[in-house]
Design brief:
Two copies of one chain form a homodimer. Chain A is of the alpha/beta class. Chain A is built from 14 helices and nine strands. The radius of gyration of chain A is 20 Å and the shape is elongated. Chain A starts with 6 loop residues before the first strand and ends in a 7-residue tail after the last helix. The interface between A and B is large, with 69 and 69 residues.
């Protein structure tokens, strides 16, 4: 392109902030919107325009990206009176990157199609580190031609950019990812508490397990959070609970029994009940530690 | 050492066979015993002596290694009338490498100590491939001086050779490993079945999940087994059930709730009930596939 497409970004949270910054860095003219306006300051300084409403943003750009929180917020931003769909330019592409259910994506995609606007669901994995480094995995759902059109914008934010299938498929992949990760994370907690209760050195145990069949991304993260007793988010218990609930809802619609998914949701709910909702997901170990009178810590 | 210590190896199964061979390769004079004598042929040809009973083997060597199956078999081989403990040389070191409960190890260690014989529990992780390549992780429990004494023999079989604590600590680490791996493996199955039910490409899903937070050793193995519909063991559902049961028993003794460990045991039992006990652990997905009418397969 001789002139670069204009991009809008809605939702400048822990993930959205650095994602929007990487779009700007890649040379796209950028307009941003955030409910709490103060969060737009850094991007405005870096050269982004600031819109007053999601609709005003949508009216100005070729691509709308968003990274919000749950299904209800996403539906409001897209389908509300001054929302994205009602104000998007014909031929624009909407790229919704929050972790929500596939049904909400399909609903918005239909409303967009009725106005000649294309839609992709494109949730991401890789955490704040991946968002900052532009190395996110982006699991996309939508039509292949629309995916190709949006590809340069997605490539500005991620490294593993994959089209999984029609609209909703990115969300399915992401919910599967988060349910598997939650199961693994809670399984790591159960095992490490058994080890602590037997007096094993937690750091040494984590190392030997990482060289064995129990090895996982969640186990690899253990030293940074549990072993150092650092439960600052990052990705919170509340957010993981939301995602595992969505995954279990999806499985229920599909008629797929998710025994471990259901138990993982209960363990997360126990952690929430203990007031740990705003802590890092590694804190799912804390109720178990309290019940058994041990702490999993180490160098 | 100018003259190398004599080593005995009991139990020449899928794991024990290649482990014994690596001891021989490292230059130790080796005596072997196997209940089914036919299995000693390959090692005899390679230069090992063959003993008639575990006791006869123990009487001839400085180190006894064994890799058997469950706690009952191990107890018989070690504590039986013509067993290892009654016939071991004073000053010998016994190295029991099966995956069993820490209590049985402690019981044998006490009986050995009463005869002036040292004992290590040293279960392994890494599968048949690791056994053949001599790259096993070996999780050892015992006295530091005894561990150092046995180290050259252990190094002949493994790469990650670690002393976890007193006798029984190796078994604890190994049971934790196998319970975590079983939870992760069954969680992978639940997630992949949701994906199949939504029509996602299984191979592509596995790839994007491996680049995300769900990444694990068990997920990495998926293409070799589930995706290729190859459920030949390797490590069987029956063996993993035994290990997860032992881990849950240990947790019960310790008073540690293992919600996910308990559910993983039930899922394994369901697979056993469907006649899958002698299949690879990846076959834990099959009951879920049958219930939902999908198959997780791909290139």
């Amino acid at each position: 392109m001789s002139e670069r497409a204009a991009v809008g970004f809605i939702g400048l949270g822990l993930m959205g902030g650095p994602m929007a910054k990487n779009i700007l860095k890649s040379g796209f003219p950028l307009t941003v919107y955030n409910r709490t306006r103060a969060r737009t300051a850094a991007l405005a300084e870096a050269g982004a325009e600031v819109a007053e409403t999601p609709g005003a943003l949508a009216a100005e750009v070729d691509f709308v990206c968003s990274c919000i929180t749950g299904p209800a917020d996403v539906a409001e931003v897209y389908l509300g009176d001054d929302g994205v769909v009602a104000n998007a330019r014909p031929g624009a592409v909407l790229v919704e990157m929050s972790t929500i259910d596939p049904g909400t994506h399909r609903q918005i995609a239909e409303a967009a199609a009725a106005r000649g606007v294309d839609y992709l669901d494109a949730p991401v994995s890789g955490g704040v580190t991946g968002a900052e480094a532009g190395t996110l995995a982006i699991m996309t759902g939508g039509a292949p031609a629309v995916f190709e059109q949006a590809r340069p914008v997605l490539d500005a934010m991620g490294e593993n950019v994959v089209l999984m299938g029609p609209v909703g498929s990115g969300a399915v992949a992401k919910l599967i990812n988060n349910m598997m990760a939650a199961i693994t994370n809670a399984g790591v907690a159960e095992g490490m508490v058994i080890g602590a209760k037997c007096g094993l050195d937690a750091a040494q145990l984590q190392q030997v397990l990482m060289a064995s069949a129990a090895s996982s991304f969640m186990l690899r993260m253990l030293p940074d959070f549990t072993l150092r007793r650092n439960f600052d988010p990052g990705f919170t218990i509340d957010n993981q609970t939301k995602d595992v609930n969505l995954a279990n809802d999806l499985a229920r619609e599909l008629g797929v029994p998710t025994m471990l998914g259901a138990v993982a949701a209960q363990l997360l709910r126990s952690a929430q009940a203990e007031g740990l909702g705003d802590r890092h997901i590694a804190a799912v170990i804390q109720p178990l530690e309290r019940l058994t009178g041990v702490e999993v810590r180490g160098e």
